[in-house]
Amino acid sequence: MTATGRPAPSPLAAQRLRTQLLSGAPARTVAGVTGHLLAIQAQDPRGARLAVRARTSGLLATDVDDALTADRSVVVSWLNRGTLHLVLAEDYWWLHQLTTPQLATGNARRLAQEGVPPADADRAVGVIERSLAADGPLTRAELRERVTAAGVRTVGQAMVHILVLATLRGLTVRGPMRCGEQAFVLARDWLGAPPPPMDRDRALGLLARRYLAGHAPADDRDLAKWAGLPLGDARRALAAIAPGLAERDDGLASPAAKTGGSGPEEEPAVPDLRLLGAFDPLLLGWASRELFLAPGGPVITSNGLFRPFVLVQGRGTALWTVTGGKVVTDPLGPLTAPERAALAAEAADVERFLARPRETVGARRARGARGAQEEPRPRR
Fold it and tell me: How far apart are CA 96 and CA 198, in angstroms?
C-alpha cells in the first residue's frame, strides 16, 4: 500500500509505464516518441498532442503541427483498428499494407448504410484524387464540396467513409495543418513514391519488434487487439522475433536485455502523478486496461470516448480538463507531498504545452480553411 492507502503498483505496471515513456528518460522529439510507440491514436487531435507532451520534455503542441507540416516527419491516417493514428512518415507504407486490407469490408458496409453505392464511391474517390493532384492540400470541407458537386451523397457520415476509402486504397493521408485542421494530400506527393511491398512475414516481425519497444511486456492477444489483426497473425509476428525475446515466467513477451551492461537492470520507478490526455496510448496498448484503470469508472464513456485522466501512482483516479487556459482536476482525494508537487508541475507543463506563443512554420506557409477532425466512430 502507498502512504495514502492506495494499492502499490505492480511490477508489470511499472514495466509498462517505462516502455510507454511515462517514467525514465523522455523522448526528445515528436518523431522520437511517435517512432517509439509506433502509432498514437489521433482521432482526438489534442489528445494525440498531449500523448507526445507526456513522453517528452520542453516541446509545445505547435511542435507537433510543425512535424506534420514543415518537417513531414509524421502523418495521420486510418491504420491499425481502422482509427486515425499518428505515425512516422517512414512507417506509413508498411503499416498501411499490413493493417488496412481487413478494413475494406467494414468500409463498404458503412458506405452502403450511408446510401453510397460502389459506383458512386469509386467516382468520389476519383474526384478526391484529381482534386488533390491539381489543388492539394485540401481540407475535408473543400473535398466535400467537390464530391457533392459530382453528384455523390456526402451527408451524415457518408463523406468520412468516402475519405476512409481513399485512404484504404493508399491514395491519401492527412498531412499539413491549416488553421487548426489537418488537410488531406496525396500520399505519393507528400511522402514520395511508395516503396516495394514488404514481405508479409517480414512486416509481421517488424510490427512485433516495434510494438514491444513501446508496450512490453505483452502477449499475442495484446498485439492482435492493438494492431487490429487476427490472433494468428499476432502469434506469427511474435514467433518471428522469438530469438530476441527475454525468458519470462509470466508468458509475456519482452525484448531480451542488451548485453554488456554494468550490472543488473534497475527496477523501473512509477511516476507520482501524470496528466494524460484523451485516448492516451496507456489505455489502448493491451487487451485489458484493468492494470491502470478500474472498470466502470468515468474515464471511458458509454459511447466509447476516452477522457483526459489523472494517473496517480500508476492508476487512473480522476478526470481533468482545461478551462480558461488552466488545468482543472476532479477531486483527487488525499495526496502525498510528492504527488501534490507533481500535480502542480504537470498542470503548469500542460498549460505551457498548449499555449501558442508563436505561429508555427507550417501555419505561416499554409493558412487556409477551418474545420475539425472527423472520425467514423470511436474505437476502443
Answer: 11
Tell me the backbone φ, ψ of residue 165, rounded to 5 degrees: -60, -45
User: Measured between alpha carbons, how far is 18 from 289 in angstroms, rounded to an integer?
Assistant: 16
Side chain identity, residue 239: A
Cβ 257 vs Cβ 328: under 8 Å:
no
Strands 172-178 and 273-276: unpaired
Q: How would DSSP label each residue in 129-165?
A: HHHHHHH-SB-HHHHHHHHHHTT---TTTHHHHHHHH
∠ Cα 136 141 146 (to 5°): 70
| pLDDT tens digits, 297-354 | 899 998 889 999 999 999 999 999 999 999 999 999 999 999 999 999 999 999 999 9
Q: Which residues on neighbouring strands pair with residue 181, listed in sequence order?
A: 178
Label each residue of 187-208 as H, E or C.
HHHHHCCCCCCCCHHHHHHHHH
Sheet architecture: strand order including 326-329:
273-276, 309-312, 315-323, 326-329
With residue 19 as reference, give the H or E element that holds it: helix 11-19
Please give the backbone phi and psi of residue 81, each rounded to the nearest 5 degrees, phi first: -80, 20
pTM over 0.85: yes
